[in-house]
Specification:
Shape: globular
Structural class: alpha/beta
Largest sheet: 6 strands, parallel
Distance between the termini: 40 Å
Number of strands: 10
Order of helices and strands: EHEHHEHEHEHEHEHHEHHHHEHE
């Protein structure tokens, strides 16, 4: 049975959730404080580049199942299911900034008029959904009667997010209420038709699955970058090393490419948050912390390698000279990966800053960013 859904926050995750859930047959209202963004969305214009998203946006606007508004109160009152999809950026200490989420929770409290299922899709530290439940209960609303809280982390890959939403490898739902579980089955009925695996678990388990998954992939990237650096030093071919490693089914060939470091909105933020969580609970995340250190060094290594290549007499540079001074250097690619316009934590930003600080003139190009 289709549901009326409010998607609170229409950034990257929220937009994909709004268009995807509407395409499943639900009626969705996307909410955001940015009125210009809302106007563009209602006109069928996506604020982000993601292959396929505008097709689904326009199709569901035309069907009448999707619209966008700045009025959070109206959206909350009209909906049976409330998806929280606001940003949770990193603070300076690595912990997640939950101020936007806290504002949304207060809006829900202000407009909670009958039973709602509150679904957190934002990436949040372990214990956040329990805090949401306790906070709403503390003002007199009864869990199971007036509301339920569900943790439903996203696993979207930028550049493939539209496909990932409609064909996920798994759907993780932290849910401790039979009533809420029935509602969530209705929300995602379309995924049952294509036999997507569902993992039902506790709130805390769902929260940790998200962090554990992203941190593991970040560790794999940093490990492969170290192997690439060693390969250069010993004269080995890292591509053949990675090919042979990937043939082992226990390892798999994915995330075995050496790169100038990982970036984006997830890996840097989520690894930092996991390290902070471990410190808070006196369980040091030493492997994840090492991956962060390796990743930061890898970005700078790219500049050092370039300096070594350019600082040669055959290029008219003496060993004592700055090899970058007054050189015009092209940087091809600004986004942290292909098929996205997202430059958050992109290795290119570190590389460009260092080149400019060394006296180079940088000409940068990206097809989308």
């Amino acid at each position: 049975m289709a549901k009326n859904i409010a998607v609170l926050g229409n950034g990257y995750v929220g937009l994909l959730a709004a268009v995807g859930l509407a395409d499943f047959g639900n009626t969705c209202i996307g909410v955001d404080v940015n009125s210009q963004k809302i106007e563009r969305l209602n006109a069928g214009i996506s604020p982000i580049y993601e292959p396929g998203v505008e097709v689904y946006l326009r199709r569901n606007l035309d069907s009448g199942r999707l619209r966008f508004t700045t009025d959070a109160g109206e959206a909350i009152r009209r909906s049976q299911v409330l998806f929280i999809t606001v940003g949770t950026p990193s603070k300076e200490d690595g912990s997640a900034d939950l101020s936007f989420l806290e504002q949304v929770v207060q809006q829900i409290i202000d407009h909670l008029d009958d039973y709602k299922v509150i679904v957190t899709k934002s990436t949040v530290p372990v214990g956040t959904n329990r805090w949401i439940l306790n906070t709403i209960a503390s003002v007199g609303f009864i869990p199971g009667k007036d509301f339920d809280v569900v943790s439903n982390p996203e696993f979207l890959r930028e550049g493939r997010a539209t496909r990932d939403f409609f064909h996920p490898e798994r759907t993780v739902i932290g849910c401790e209420s039979k009533r809420a579980k029935a509602v969530m089955k209705d929300v995602y009925w379309a995924l049952n038709l294509i036999s997507v695996p569902f993992l039902w678990c506790s709130l805390e388990t769902a929260e940790l699955i998200k962090y554990a998954s992203n941190a593991f992939l970040a560790v794999k990237i940093s490990y492969m970058n170290e192997i690439a650096n060693l390969s250069e030093s010993v004269g080995a071919d890292v591509h053949q090393v990675a090919l042979a490693m990937g043939m082992d089914s226990r390892i798999s060939p994915k995330f075995l490419h050496s790169v100038p470091g990982y970036g984006g909105s997830c890996f840097p933020k989520d690894t930092a948050a996991l390290v902070h969580l471990g410190h808070k609970h006196k369980v040091p995340m030493q492997i994840v912390n090492s991956a962060i250190v390796v990743n930061d060094a890898q970005k700078n290594r790219m500049v050092d390698k370039l300096a070594s290549l350019m600082g040669k007499e055959e290029y008219g540079v003496s060993p004592a000279e700055n090899p970058f001074k007054n050189k015009v250097i092209a940087v091809l690619g600004l986004a942290f990966k292909s098929e996205t316009d997202d430059i958050r934590e992109s290795p290119s930003l570190i590389i460009i800053d260092r080149l400019c600080a060394s006296g180079a003139v940088v000409k940068a190009n990206d097809p989308k960013a």
